[in-house]
From TrEMBL:
PANTHER family: UPF0750 MEMBRANE PROTEIN YITT-RELATED (PTHR33545), UPF0750 MEMBRANE PROTEIN YPJC (PTHR33545:SF10)
Membrane topology: Multi-pass membrane protein
Location relative to the cell: Cell membrane
Keywords: Cell membrane, Membrane, Transmembrane, Transmembrane helix
Signal peptide start and end residues: none
Source organism: Drancourtella massiliensis
Highest taxon listed in the record's lineage: Bacteria
Name this protein carries in UniProt: YitT family protein
Residue stretches spanning the membrane: 40-61, 68-86, 101-119
Keyword Endoplasmic reticulum belongs to the record: no
Length: 198
């Protein structure tokens, strides 16, 4: 389990650092807030990520089991460590700023696969997952709607430093990554047997 969490964290943060940070295409949720805080307040991504995640976990604690929280905390640590690791090196991928659609699609693939691997292990890549679950359970919304709500709020804030056209490409990234997270989470997974009384 820890191996897959580490692999997922490495894939996700590699894409965010080498594609999203370099091209100005952002994600929603905590990832987007991390990039927002890094842009305007110059807070290192490896520092702001656990702060935001912890806030979301505290807010959502009543809706989540202890095992989920423990796994998610481990995942958050791996994400922070890999952020710090990638920032020690120059960008490892070509600058796709002139090809925003390619950047949006490729970034969405890295985030979707990486986060999907983590979610598949029963945790989350960050507090945005916990926040979305909390919103979903508190309002009765579908989980996808809760994710969309948080993503759109963050993307709205990101308009303060990202042009509208790039935000449009960020929406492409969010949609693709969401689909991939769902696909990776459920890939060849057997449905849980129904229990009596359900």
């Amino acid at each position: 389990m820890l191996l897959w969490i580490a692999v997922g964290a490495a894939i996700c943060t590699f894409g965010i650092h080498n594609i999203h940070s370099q091209t100005g295409i952002t994600e929603g949720g905590v990832i987007g807030m991390t990039l927002f805080a890094n842009k305007w307040f110059h807070i290192p991504k490896g520092l702001v990520t656990p702060i935001l995640d912890l806030s979301c976990y505290l807010l959502a604690f009543r809706f989540l089991g202890g095992k989920f929280i423990r796994i998610s905390m481990i995942s958050t640590l791996f994400v922070s460590l890999f952020y710090d690791l990638w920032e020690q090196f120059p960008y490892m991928l070509p600058d796709l700023s002139d090809y925003p659609l390619a950047a949006a699609l490729l970034g969405g693939v890295f985030v979707g696969i990486g986060v999907g691997l983590i979610v598949r292990q029963g945790g989350s890549s960050g507090g945005d997952d916990a926040l979305a679950l909390s919103i979903s359970r508190g309002t009765g919304w579908r989980l996808s709607r809760a994710y969309l709500f948080t993503d759109l709020v963050v993307l709205g804030l990101s308009l303060s430093y990202i042009p509208v056209i790039r935000i449009a490409f960020s929406v492409v990234t969010v949609m693709l990554s969401s689909l991939l997270i769902d696909f990776v989470q459920n890939f060849r997974r057997q449905p849980e047997p129904e229990t009596a009384g359900e």
